[in-house]
Amino acid sequence: MQKQTKLIKSKYREEIQNTNKMNLFLIVGSGVLVVLYFMYSDLIIRNNVYAFYTRLLPVVVGVSLLLFHLFTKKKYGYLKTIALNIFLLSLLIMMYAKYLVYTYMGSSANSVMGIILVIFTISFFLNTNIINTILIYLLPTLIFIIILYKYFDLTENVTVNLSNIYAMIIGGLVANRVQLKLRFNLYKSNFLLDQEMEKSKQLYEETLTMNEELLEKNEETTYINKELTESNATKNKLISIIAHDLKSPFNGMLGFSNLLVDNYDSYDIESQKKYIHIIHQSINSTYKLLNNLLTWTATQNETINLMLANENLYQLAEESIEPFKQILKEKTINLLNQINKDVTVKADKDLLETVFRNLISNAIKFTPKGGSISLIAEKAKNSSPNSIQITVKDSGVGMPLDVQLRLFKISENISTKGTENESGTGLGLILCKEFIEKHGGQIWVKSEQEKGSEFIFTLPM
């Protein structure tokens, strides 16, 4: 507490010095001008040369202080505060000297009023410790009284005037200390208030910083949780495919192959072909699933690197259609490649073929017999002007909105039977999304139940 009080007093002294520096021209300048006016009055109007000379001291001190301040500007604040106190002291000495002059001439009433005015002026401008204040008030007074009583024959009128001066000296001293104490208390209150405001501001800023840090940590935690959720979904999907979707086809193949092994000679040629065809289809389907699974696993481990090259989009689509010609014939689906033969894209051929194969396979799966599928390419409307938009459009069964919203999410288990009861894993569309995004494109779906679906994606040209 004591340490804080010392700090406040030190700051208060600095404040006084700064105030004095800011108002020095106003205080001293106005004082010098007033004294110069009375010097003129003494010399010209009253024709009193002795009174004129009594006013020289504050003029010399005041002008010297103003010149010093003019050349040093903001420097030497403490020295200027002392010089200001000396200027105030010189005003008091001036008034005592003037009183002696007028007492000698037999008239002192006006001088008494001047002394009282100067005493109360000093009481508001004198900012120093108690000892210096007492010296400034009382030492000149003591010298003045000694001179007065030693060299003058005091009349009753002079004695009465002196009693007024003594009372005003004490009153000015008390007024000086009271106003100084009040000013200090006011400064102390403001200082402490500023400190509390600064602490509150720091606390507020620290709270904001903590909130930002907590928000960042919360975002990090959310991101980690999201990654964990996706990782768990990926793991669960993989286990599901291995446990069910990859195992089931083998049960069918084993069953039909056992029938052939055990009863081959008893079956006619048509039955043998039928079972061999079923086994062949199961092997084909399982191979495609395994290939997708291996590719998808590679994407999760980030071991797939893009091998970009200029590819003819029409030709690449034709090569992707080739494996499906038999099933298109069986389901009597008309697949039309409407892509312009001159269109080229910057793409990884293997990944883009995987995208086409999965989208074409899906379109075939959900298009009934006698339906149609179209492959269309046109300049992208809402994407980059250097992008091309490819659409795989079918006249199939379509899908509701809630299914569309879940299609490309690994955490959602979307696997629907086709029009001929074809099975799937829902993995193909997730592969498509990852491969298209690796190329810097986007993929989305437009669909309406019983009106078909459009799977649309963009690629850089």
* Contiguous helical run count: 14
* Class derived from helix and strand content: alpha+beta
**Beta-strand residue percentage:** 5-15%
Q: What's the gyration radius in Å?
A: 52 Å
End-to-end distance: 76 Å
Q: What are the low-pLDDT stretches, counting only 5+ consecutive residues below 50?
A: none
Q: What's the helical proportion of residues?
A: over 70%
Mean pLDDT: 79
**Domain module tally:** 3
Total E-strand runs: 7
Shape: rod-shaped
Q: Give me the strand/helix succession.
A: HHHHHHHHHEHHEEHEEHHEE
Describe the structure in brief.
By secondary structure, this protein is α+β, with helices and mostly antiparallel strands. It has helices spanning 2-45, 49-54, 56-72, 77-104, 109-125, 130-151, 156-245, 247-263, 269-300, 313-321, 325-330, 349-365, 401-406, 427-438; strands spanning 309-312, 334-337, 344-347, 372-379, 387-394, 443-447, 453-460.
Structure description:
With about 450 residues, the chain is an alpha+beta fold. A 5-stranded mixed sheet has the order 2-4-5-7-6. Strands 1-3 form a two-stranded antiparallel ribbon. Helix content is about 70%, strand content about 10%. The protein has helices at about 1-45, 50-55, 55-70, 75-105, 110-125, 130-150, 155-245, 245-265, 270-300, 315-320, 325-330, 350-365, 400-405, 425-440; strands at about 310, 335, 345, 370-380, 385-395, 445, 455-460.
List the helices and strands and how they pair.
Elements: H1 2-45, H2 49-54, H3 56-72, H4 77-104, H5 109-125, H6 130-151, H7 156-245, H8 247-263, H9 269-300, E1 309-312, H10 313-321, H11 325-330, E2 334-337, E3 344-347, H12 349-365, E4 372-379, E5 387-394, H13 401-406, H14 427-438, E6 443-447, E7 453-460
Parallel strand pairs: 2-4
Antiparallel strand pairs: 1-3, 4-5, 5-7, 6-7
Helix pairs in contact: 1-3, 1-4, 3-4, 4-5, 4-6, 5-7, 6-7, 8-9, 9-14, 10-12, 12-14
